[in-house]
Amino acid sequence: MLDLTDAARSAIRVAVETSEAARGLRIVCAAGGCAGIQYRLGLAAGADAEDAVQVFDDNVTVYVDPDSARLLVGATVDFVQDERGAGFVFRNPNAASGCAGCSSKGSC
């Protein structure tokens, strides 16, 4: 379904280990217009009935609903820390790169 970099797996592992109830990371995708796909991430206590569950070699678990799973095929999730902050970055071949009519503020 998707791939996680070492940095992403490490960040997820730390978040799960510091949470009392979390067992993994839930990723939800939503259509984002010309901006492509919007991602919502959160810790999850377990899988919902229809979730795709992906367990990585180091026991990092990702839960994804069926609609989101289709949008994440071939995607890579990384965790980046720099002078602007830290967060997850998605490299997704299924996401649009924007439209020619978008302004510099991201609105069409």
TrEMBL record:
Superkingdom field: Bacteria
This protein's GO CC annotations: cytosol
Pfam families the record matches: Fe-S_biosyn
Any one biological process term the GO annotation gives: iron-sulfur cluster assembly
Domain (Core): residue spans on this chain: 2-99
GO MF: 2 iron, 2 sulfur cluster binding
NCBIfam families attached to this UniProt entry: iron-sulfur cluster assembly accessory protein (TIGR00049)
Family affiliation: Belongs to the HesB/IscA family.
PANTHER family: IRON-SULFUR CLUSTER ASSEMBLY 1 HOMOLOG, MITOCHONDRIAL, IRON-SULFUR CLUSTER ASSEMBLY PROTEIN
Protein name (Swiss-Prot/TrEMBL): Iron-sulfur cluster assembly accessory protein
